[in-house]
Amino acid sequence: PLSAETALDYGISGPIARASGIDYDMRRDEPYGIYDRFKFNVPVRKNGDTFDRYMVRLDEMAESVKILEQAYRDIPEGPVMAKVPKVIKPPAGEVFYRIEHSKGHFGFHIVSDGSNKPYRLRIYSPCFTNVAIFEEMAKGLHLQDAVVAFASLDIILGEIDR
């Protein structure tokens, strides 16, 4: 099992953190976009094990349906897509922005010189952070249990390729 303390030490977020008892969701606690308009519960479990990670994800699916139903009722009339230029030139400067991704916090650090190509771009992937916890989680597990525990981290290999 993954304790809340260890999850925090490693910077774990999203469903894996919530399965360890950490009651935090950016959509509720630091709302962005239109999340402040929606009523939803944040599923949290306490044991930090494979079963709790699975159950948090199942519970989150039901909450996602609630959010979608509310969003559907509030869709305004008009065009579906905004008109966006083919090339976007961000202003010169530096910004860090993160969102609540289905696997945890997904962050973007951009340094712009004002051109259409960023001077520096860094993407912070929740899978990259989540895979780092596996060694700690696998201590004392039988091989067959370690395979299931790794699968419960819901890793996307393309996100951890550096």
Report what the structure shows:
The chain is α+β, with helices and mostly antiparallel strands. It has a single domain, classed as Cytochrome-c3 Hydrogenase, chain B, CATH 1.10.645.10. Helices cover 40% and strands 14% of the residues. It has 8 helices and 3 strands, in the order H-H-H-H-E-E-E-H-H-H-H. The protein has a 3-stranded antiparallel beta sheet. Strand 1 and strand 2 form a beta hairpin. The protein starts with a helix and ends with a helix. The mean pLDDT is 93.
Summarize the structure.
This protein is α+β, with helices and mostly antiparallel strands and 162 residues long.
Comma- or semicolon-separated keywords:
single chain; 162 residues; Cytochrome-c3 Hydrogenase, chain B; 3-stranded antiparallel β-sheet; 40% helix
Q: Provide the spatial order of strands within the biggest beta sheet.
A: 1-2-3
- How many distinct domains? 1
CATH architectural category:
Orthogonal Bundle
* Global shape: globular
Portion of residues within helices: 25-40%
Secondary-structure element pattern, one letter each: HHHHEEEHHHH
List the helices and strands and how they pair.
Layout: H1 4-10, H2 14-18, H3 26-29, H4 50-73, E1 93-101, E2 104-112, E3 120-124, H5 126-131, H6 134-138, H7 143-151, H8 157-160
